[in-house]
């Protein structure tokens, strides 16, 4: 893998970590009753269910594979909730100082990824790499579940939270 692709993957990972953190903040504020948007209802319910499952599995400590699977699912759901909250913030519907900093970091990573995408690749980097996910483009990603038009870099639907 080239340095360019490694940097792109690293930027995407950093962006996703920020979205995951944003999801956790929004989840806690939703549970506390300080934040409520209808778009958050289903992902929050799924996160709550996964947390309950993890607590039950950890009591036994015998099923490590199930625990790991649920931890991965929880991370994906928190990232999906982070995407929803980020889209609400970008659309001007969510104005919270608690999340503004993280949303600005996500925007910075997304912009850097878009800039990288528009920069011509070196000749040895022109081969397609199936491990590099798409970055921001002008196109939209349509959710198969609800039909919502998402930004091209979205990994999860901004309306229903389903993985795209």
Textual characterization of the structure:
This protein is mainly alpha-helical. It contains 4 helices and 2 strands, in the order H-H-H-H-E-E. It has helices at residues 3-32, 41-60, 64-90, 97-118; strands at 140-142, 149-151. A two-stranded antiparallel ribbon has the order 1-2. A hairpin with a 6-residue loop joins strand 1 (140-142) and strand 2.
- Report the mean per-residue pLDDT as an integer: 79
Oligomer: single chain
How many structural domains does the protein architecture include?
A: 1
Please give the radius of gyration in angstroms. 17 Å
Shape: globular
Secondary-structure element string: HHHHEE
Proportion of residues in extended strands: under 5%
Low-confidence stretches: 123-138
Label this structure with key terms.
single chain, two-stranded antiparallel ribbon, globular, 164 residues, mainly alpha
Chart the SSEs and their pairings:
Elements: H1 3-32, H2 41-60, H3 64-90, H4 97-118, E1 140-142, E2 149-151
Antiparallel strand pairs: 1-2
Helix pairs in contact: 1-3, 1-4, 2-3
Task: State the gist of this model.
By secondary structure, this protein is mainly alpha-helical.
